[in-house]
Every structure is written in structure tokens, then in C-alpha cells.
What we know:
Blueprint: E1 17-23, E2 32-41, E3 48-52, E4 62-64
Antiparallel strand pairs: 1-2, 1-4, 2-3
Amino acid sequence: xxxxxxxxxxxxxxxxxxxxxxxxxxxxxxxxxxxxxxxxxxxxxxxxxxxxxxxxxxxxxxxxxxxxxx
Length: 70
């Protein structure tokens, strides 16, 4: 008996948001944004999955839509 494997990979999903931690800059400087993950929507439209590569020290995560050039 031979098992047939599905050789087609599902199309990779693009994140609908990127996750950032934001640290305030020193006086007169801009804030420092570090991308720490991404949010992927579920197919049923009822939420999604947040994948984090790091955790912010202050517990604050900012979600922003990816720019077209990313």
C-alpha cells in the first residue's frame, strides 16, 4: 500500500498587523520602534493569532498595519 502525500504547500499568509514595542526617545529625539512579532487573521474572521519573537519590558505592544513596501 502506497500513501500519497500532498506535495502542494498552502499559500503563506501575510500578517495583517506587525507588533512593535515602542520606547520613548531622549528629550528631543523620536521614539524607538522595535518589531517583535506579527498578527495573522483566522480564516473565519473571528480573531487571529499573535506571534511574538520578544516581549516588551513595559508590557505595551503596538499593532500597526504593514506598509506596502514591507
